[in-house]
Design goal:
Structural class: alpha+beta
Organism: Arachis hypogaea (Peanut)
Number of helices: 20
Oligomer: single chain
Keywords: Metal-binding, Zinc, Zinc-finger
Low-confidence stretches: 24-144, 147-178, 774-781
GO molecular function, one term: zinc ion binding
Protein name: SWIM-type domain-containing protein
Helix content: 25-40%
InterPro entries: MULE_transposase_dom, Transposase_MuDR, Znf_PMZ, Znf_SWIM
Number of strands: 20
Strand content: 15-25%
Length: about 775
C-alpha cells in the first residue's frame, strides 16, 4: 500500500481488495500458489478494480544474506590535558583524494546537527556490545573516500562492505522476489552481523519480533504474535572454536499478519540505518540528514525519525573517518609524520593544561589551536595576486570550533586556500594566532592587501604593532558583501543596499559620487552611516589598485568547491583531507596550465576573455594623440559602452591609467587603452600584469605534493594525550541552535510563494499535505 502511494501520488484514496484462496493441485492436495498477483488502486472518483483472488506468496528457502555489521560509537576518551607545543618543520598528510571541479551547491548553514541524541529505536535488545569491524579509526588507514566528488545516489544500492550485501534479502527490481529465509547452520562473522540480518529480515517482512534472550553466547528471538497463531522463532549461538555465530534453530517463515499499518518499524534502528547509509556517507560526508532519511524510507518502506538517522550518520562517519575523540590524539603524530614526509611543512599545535582537583595532569592536554600549511602553498602564493582573503567557518560535528582559512587567487581567477587554523572561535587571540603565523610563514611580501569582514578580532590582530600587518607593509580592505549586510541591518530595502554596493564597485570618483548622490536623495542618514567607514577600506576607487577587482572574500566558494564536507569530519580527518584535496587540485590545475603553455598561449583564459570583450567595444572610439613621448591620448566614445559613461577619457599607456578606472584597478588594458594601442600600432601584451601570464599560473601549481609516508613509518609521539575540551562539546539532546549569524543575506524572497516540503506544491504545508500517507489522510476509508 505504501509503495503504491509513492508510485501513484495522484491517487488520493488507494483501496486494496485481497482474497485468500486455496488452489487444488493435480495430486488432489491443497497447495499455495508460488506466484504473486496484485490488483490495486482506485480513487474516490473511480471505483477500485481488483481481481477476485490473490494467491499467497510462499518464498523459496534460500541462505540468508550475511551483511557485515559495525558497532556502536565509542564515546569516551579522557577528560583533560597538559600542554604541547609542536613547531613547524615539514609536513604531509594523506594520499590525494578527489576534488570537485565546481560548486555542487551551497551547504545548508541551518542544517546543523547535534552531536548526540538518545536512541528512540525501541530495540528490545540490550545495549549492543560492539567491536569495530568496518572502517576503523583515522589512524588505521590513510585511504579516504573521495567525498568531494558529486553525490552518487546509486551508492545507496551498492555494497556497504566489500563482499557483503547491505541488508538481508535486499529488494530487487521485482519487489519481494529477492526475500529469503534463514537456514539452520547458516553462519555469521559476529553477533552484530547476525543481528543486522535478523532486523533487516523483520523489516522486509513488515513484522515485529521480540528478543527472548541475548548475551555474549546466544541470541533468541520470537515473533511478537508467538503463541497466537505464529510459530516464528530463531536461535543463534556462538561457536567458540571458530569464533562465528550460527543459526541453531529456525521456525519460519512468519504465518502472522500485521495488525496495524505504521510508517515506522521498531527494528529499523540506527545500527541498521548506519549500515545502509554507509556508502552515501563515504561518497559525501556532507550529505544532509534529509537526503539520508528519504533514501532510507524509499529503500526500506518505513520512515524513521530525524534523530535516528542523525545517529546513524554519526556512526557511519566514525567508522569511515575515525572516532571523534581519538581524532584529537592523532593530531600530534600526524604533525610528526607529515613533517617527516614533506620538509618545509608548517604545523603548529597548541594545547592547554588539564587540571584535576586543582593540580595539572601531566599525562593529558586539551587541544587548543592548530595552524598548518604546506610547502606547495607557500611557493604558490609567490605567483598569485598580492592579496589574501581571510575568513572563518564553523565546524559541524561532535565538538564545536572554527576553521580559519586564508585564500589567494591566481591569474586565471582560480581560488586557492594557502593556510588553515583550527581554533576555539573567532576572537582577538585566535585571529592573532592565525595571522601571525600566516605573515611569518606564507605571506611575508610587502604591500600585501588583506580582505576580511569587520570583525573586531581581525581588527585587533591586524593593528598589533608587532604583527607586521600595518601600512606600508600591508593594507586592509573590507568585504563589501559584509559591509552591505551590516548596512541592511539599519536601513531596510534592497534598493538602498544596491546603491551602496554600486558605489563601492565604482572605479572612479565621478562614478562613486553619481551613486552616492542617489543614495543621499533616498536618505541622508545612509550616507552618514557609510561615511563613518574610511573610503579606502570599502570603495574600489580609493584602493590604489590593490584589490585587483576583488571586492569580497571567497570563503563560500572555497568551502563548496575545494573543502566541501570537511566541516562534518573529525579533526584529524579534516586536516588530512586538506592535504589530499589540495594535492588533487594542484595536479588538475597544473595539468591545465601546462597544456595551455604547450599550445603556445601567453595569457590565462580569464584574461583572454576580458581582452576579447574589450576589443569588441574598442572599435567605436575616436583616438587623439596628445603626447607621443609619454603615450598620452584622449579617447572619445562615439556610442556609450555602459550604463555610466564620461564620453571622453584620458589614457596614459606609460603610467597605465585611464579615466574609466579599469586599467589601474584590474592591471590589464581597458577598452580605451586597447584603442590607443591599436592607434599607435603597439602590442597590448606589454601592459598586462605578469600575474596574468600563463607561465605565472603554471608556476603556482608547479610544486607538487609528495605521496605520504605510510603511518606505520611515522615517528612515535611520546607527549601527553591530546583530548578535546569538554566545554566545546555540542548539546547532547535535541537539535542545536544554528551558530550562523542571520543577516539579510540569508533572507528568502518574501514574494516567493511557500511550497509544501513533500509535494512541492503551494497552498499547504507538509503536515497538511493531501499526499501524506496515513489513516488520517485517506478520506476515512
Amino acid at each position: 500500500m505504501f509503495l503504491c502511494r509513492r508510485q501513484f501520488p495522484e491517487v488520493r484514496t488507494p483501496e486494496l481488495l485481497a482474497k485468500l484462496v486455496d488452489v487444488v493441485s493435480s495430486s488432489g492436495g491443497s497447495n499455495r500458489n508460488a506466484t504473486t498477483e496484485a490488483a490495486a488502486a482506485g480513487s474516490s472518483s473511480r471505483p477500485a478494480v481488483a481481481s477476485s483472488s490473490v494467491p499467497v506468496y510462499e518464498p523459496a528457502v534460500e541462505a540468508v544474506a550475511s551483511p557485515s555489521f559495525a558497532v556502536d560509537l565509542n564515546d569516551g576518551v579522557g577528560d583533560v590535558v597538559g600542554s604541547v607545543d609542536i613547531l613547524p618543520n615539514a609536513l604531509q598528510g594523506v594520499p590525494p583524494v578527489g576534488v570537485g571541479d565546481g560548486v555542487l551547491g551551497d551547504v545548508e548553514e541551518d542544517d546543523v546537527e547535534p552531536d548526540m541524541i538518545e536512541d528512540d529505536s525501541g530495540d528490545e535488545v540490550g545495549a549492543t556490545e560492539a567491536a569495530l569491524v568496518v572502517g576503523g579509526s583515522s589512524s588505521g588507514t590513510q585511504q579516504y573516500p573521495p567525498h568531494f566528488s558529486s553525490l552518487d545516489l546509486d551508492a545507496m544500492r551498492q555494497e556497504g562492505v566489500s563482499g557483503h550485501s547491505v541488508g538481508f534479502g535486499a529488494r530487487d527490481a521485482e519487489g519481494t522476489a529477492g526475500l529469503t529465509e534463514f537456514q539452520v547452520g547458516q553462519q555469521f562473522q559476529d553477533k552484530d552481523e547476525a543481528l543486522l540480518s535478523v532486523k533487516t529480515y523483520s523489516i522486509r517482512r513488515g513484522v515485529q519480533y521480540k528478543v527472548v534472550e541475548s548475551d555474549h553466547r546466544r541470541y533468541v528471538g520470537k515473533c511478537s504474535e508467538f503463541g497466537n497463531g505464529c510459530t516464528w522463532l530463531i536461535r543463534l549461538s556462538l561457536r567458540k572454536r571458530k569464533g562465528i555465530w550460527e543459526v541453531k534453530r529456525y521456525n519460519g517463515p512468519h504465518t502472522c499478519l500485521a495488525t496495524s499499518i505504521s510508517s515506522d518499524h521498531r527494528s529499523l534502528d540506527y545500527h541498521v540505518i548506519s549500515a545502509f547509509v554507509m556508502p552515501m556517507v563515504r561518497a559525501d560526508a556532507s550529505v544532509s540528514i534529509k537526503v539520508l532519511l528519504n533514501a532510507t524510507a524509499a529503500h526500506f518502506g518505513f520512515r524513521p525519525t530525524y534523530r535516528r538517522v542523525w545517529m546513524a550518520k554519526q556512526k557511519a562517519i566514525a567508522l569511515v573517518y575515525g572516532d571523534w575523540d581519538e581524532s584529537y590524539n592523532e593530531l600530534p603524530r600526524w604533525v610528526l609524520g607529515v613533517q617527516m614526509t614533506m620538509p618545509g611543512t608548517v604545523a603548529i599545535l597548541r594545547t592547554s593544561p588539564v587540571r584535576v582537583s586543582g593540580q595539572v595532569d601531566e599525562s593529558q592536554a586539551f587541544f587548543h589551536r592548530l595552524f598548518w600549511t604546506f610547502p606547495p602553498l607557500i611557493q604558490a602564493f609567490r605567483h598569485c595576486k598580492p592579496l589574501v582573503s581571510i575568513d572563518g567557518t564553523h565546524l559541524y560535528g561532535k565538538y564545536g570550533g572554527t576553521l580559519l582559512i586564508a585564500i589567494a587567487q591566481d591569474g586565471n581567477s582560480n581560488i586557492l586556500p594557502v593556510a588553515f587554523a583550527l581554533v576555539e572561535g573567532e576572537n582577538a587571540e585566535s585571529w592573532s594566532f592565525f595571522l601571525s603565523h600566516l605573515r611569518q610563514h606564507v605571506t611575508p611580501q610587502p604591500g600585501l592587501l588583506v580582505i576580511s569582514d569587520r570583525h573586531n578580532g581581525i581588527k585587533a590582530a591586524l593593528e598589533a604593532p608587532d604583527g607586521g600587518w600595518l601600512p606600508p607593509s600591508a593594507y586592509r580592505a573590507f568585504c563589501i558583501r559584509h559591509v552591505a549586510a551590516n548596512f541592511a541591518l539599519t536601513f531596510k530595502g534592497k534598493d538602498a543596499r544596491r546603491l551602496l554596493v554600486n558605489a563601492a564597485y565604482a572605479k572612479t570618483e565621478v562614478e562613486f559620487d553619481y551613486w552616492f548622490d542617489i543614495l543621499r536623495s533616498e536618505d541622508p542618514a545612509m550616507c552618514e552611516w557609510a561615511n563613518r567607514i574610511d573610503y579606502s577600506l570599502w570603495t574600489q576607487h580609493r584602493d590604489d589598485g590593490r584589490r585587483f577587482g576583488h571586492m569580497t572574500t571567497n570563503i563560500s566558494e572555497c568551502v563548496n568547491s575545494i573543502l566541501k564536507g570537511v566541516r562534518n569530519l573529525p579533526v584529524c580527518s579534516l586536516v588530512k583531507a586538506t592535504y589530499g584535496r589540495l594535492a588533487e587540485l594542484f595536479v588538475r590545475k597544473g595539468r591545465e596550465a601546462e597544456a595551455q603553455m604547450g599550445t603556445g598561449q601567453q595569457f590565462s583564459q580569464y584574461l583572454v576573455k576580458c581582452i576579447e570583450a574589450n576589443l569588441k567595444n574598442s572599435r567605436c572610439f575616436t583616438v587623439t594623440l596628445y603626447d607621443r613621448d609619454n603615450s598620452e591620448f584622449t579617447v572619445a566614445e562615439t556610442t556609450p559602452t555602459g550604463s555610466f559613461s564620461l564620453g571622453t577619457y584620458r589614457v596614459s599607456l606609460a603610467s597605465r591609467t585611464c579615466d574609466c578606472g579599469y586599467f589601474q584597478a584590474l592591471h590589464f588594458p581597458c577598452q580605451h587603452a586597447l584603442a590607443c594601442c591599436a592607434y599607435s600600432r603597439v602590442t597590448w601584451s606589454s601592459y598586462v600584469h605578469s600575474v596574468y601570464q600563463i607561465s605565472s599560473v603554471f608556476r603556482v601549481y608547479q610544486m607538487g605534493f609528495t605521496p605520504p609516508i605510510p603511518e606505520g613509518f611515522w615517528p612515535p609521539y611520546n607527549g601527553p594525550t591530546v583530548i578535546p575540551d569538554p566545554a566545546k562539546r555540542r548539546a547532547r539532546e535535541g537539535r542545536p541552535r544554528s551558530t550562523r549569524i542571520r543577516t539579510n543575506m540569508d533572507e528568502a524572497d518574501p514574494n516567493r510563494p511557500k511550497r509544501c516540503g513533500l509535494c512541492r506544491q503551494p497552498g499547504h504545508t507538509r503536515r497538511s499535505c493531501p499526499q501524506l500517507g496515513g489513516p488520517s489522510h485517506t478520506g476515512g476509508q
